[in-house]
Amino acid sequence: MKTFYLLIILLITTQLTAQEKEQAIKDVKQAAYNYIDTFYKADTTLAYKSVHKDLRKVGWWFDKKKGKFSNKSEMPFHKLIALAKKWNAKGNRANENSIRKINILEVSDKIAVVKVTAVWGIDYLNMVKTKDGWKSINIIWQSEPKFSLKD
Predict the structure, then answer these.
(1) Which InterPro entries match (predicted)?
(2) CATH class of 1-143
């Protein structure tokens, strides 16, 4: 009888863990799309939902005129909000047909890593699960790459 109860508990625990995993993947995916749409839709409410206020975002853009990458650009949360308000405010940088791709690289019970591909290039989002949901806390980005490991 004891074995039967242990088996029932194990099955319930496994079921709950699988459900938690699927929900975490769904929530991470939504947070990544919110990040892209923060800029595409110039909607800062999405950033407040999916970006941590302790954000550390660093990146490099390729200057075609100079033929080289820029110096490191750092963007804390308040600068991300300011950029999101104006980056596509006129709708001339991204639209419904613009690339909006995510690749979830890892999801665990507390952290996740997602690769985002958008019109500006690629971002790697390091996320943390908070009481308010999944939020990007560290982001590294670059303008559109010449090559990738996936090529």
Answers:
(1) FrzH/put_lumazine-bd, NTF2-like_dom_sf
(2) alpha beta
